[in-house]
């Protein structure tokens, strides 16, 4: 069944889009990521204009993240104080990111910038996570622990000033890296159309030493609100959100997130990290392939609005 999207100005298959949303929602609930790093490339692969894919992808993240966060809230695996501080930094980052998005679009470099950012960020994060998770699984096989380090372990982050205690996560850490991480995620949310979970989850585990059991739910809460701020800013500034497209993605996303959250209970922390790393690397390789292969049309004319003729 085909449907015409007014903002994207093209016809799409309803079932394909709902299926995309369901798949990304499942992964959102499973890994604690908003799924924007998947839905945006998928929409681009489906020939949705990148500017529309980025802005609408951020919108879809809200629904899948809310559904997954609700499931984790019922299990008591959400640190709201930590999520709130990450959100404060994320809101400021979203403002800066939307401005950067507007500048890149005006100069006609948005498509290239988004693709390059995805390849670099996903490749680095996925590679590091894969190495660590494989090492963790080897430790488990040898009879050890699969956790990265116990939550109380101190590194350079814990020696910074302005410390705050997060009781649910059993952390006593500086507010500086927490706010900085939130700001960085906010910028990514605006420029790349992601919730930032694929960066947030590894950073919380490896940098802040948050227990894996708390990371997923807390990340989803922060991702949900950061995506909401980004959506409002994108709609007001660039008018690149296709509400009909977002609605179709949300239908599948909400349903998929519930099943993903339930499936996540059956996997160990090291197994979840390995699967997420594999997923991240797969998307990076697919985008890299798109960048290096010869396009069907070698030349195009780009207007000042970022639209191609």
From TrEMBL:
- Record keyword Transmembrane present: yes
Its subcellular locations are: Cell membrane; Membrane
List the InterPro entries.
TM_pro_TauE-like, TSUP/Inactive_protease-like
The transmembrane residues are 12-45, 51-70, 82-101, 113-131, 175-208, 214-236, 243-260, 272-289
Membrane topology term reads:
Multi-pass membrane protein
Which keywords does UniProt give here? Cell membrane, Membrane, Transmembrane, Transmembrane helix
Recorded hits in PANTHER family, A to Z, give: MEMBRANE TRANSPORTER PROTEIN MJ0441-RELATED, MEMBRANE TRANSPORTER PROTEIN YTNM-RELATED
Q: Which family does it belong to?
A: Belongs to the 4-toluene sulfonate uptake permease (TSUP) (TC 2.A.102) family.
Q: What is this protein called?
A: Probable membrane transporter protein
């Amino acid at each position: 069944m085909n449907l015409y999207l007014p903002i994207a100005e093209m016809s799409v298959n309803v079932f394909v889009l709902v299926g995309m949303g369901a798949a990304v929602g499942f992964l959102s609930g499973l890994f604690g990521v908003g799924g924007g790093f998947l839905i945006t490339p998928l929409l681009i692969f489906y020939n949705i204009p990148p500017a529309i894919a980025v802005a609408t992808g951020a919108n879809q993240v809200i629904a899948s993240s809310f559904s997954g966060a609700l499931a984790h809230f019922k299990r008591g695996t959400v640190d709201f104080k930590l999520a709130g501080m990450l959100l404060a930094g994320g809101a400021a980052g979203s403002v800066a990111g939307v401005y950067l998005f507007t500048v890149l679009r005006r100069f006609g470099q948005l498509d290239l910038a988004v693709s390059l950012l995805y390849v670099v960020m996903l490749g680095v994060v996925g590679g590091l996570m894969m190495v660590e998770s494989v090492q963790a699984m080897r430790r488990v096989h040898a009879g050890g622990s699969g956790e990265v380090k116990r939550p109380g372990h101190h590194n350079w982050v814990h020696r910074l000033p302005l410390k705050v205690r997060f009781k649910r996560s059993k952390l006593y850490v500086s507010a500086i890296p927490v706010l900085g991480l939130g700001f960085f995620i906010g910028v990514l949310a605006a420029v790349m159309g992601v919730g930032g979970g694929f960066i947030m989850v590894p950073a919380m585990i490896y940098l802040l030493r948050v227990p894996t059991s708390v990371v997923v739910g807390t990340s989803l809460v922060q991702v949900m609100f950061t995506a909401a701020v980004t959506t409002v800013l994108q709609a007001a500034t660039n008018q690149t959100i296709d509400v009909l497209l977002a609605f179709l993605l949300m239908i599948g996303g909400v349903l998929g997130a519930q099943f993903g959250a339930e499936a996540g209970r059956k996997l160990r922390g090291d197994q979840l990290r390995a699967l997420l790393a594999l997923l991240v690397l797969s998307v990076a390789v697919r985008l890299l392939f798109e960048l290096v292969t010869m396009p069907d049309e070698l030349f195009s004319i780009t207007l000042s609005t970022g639209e191609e003729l």
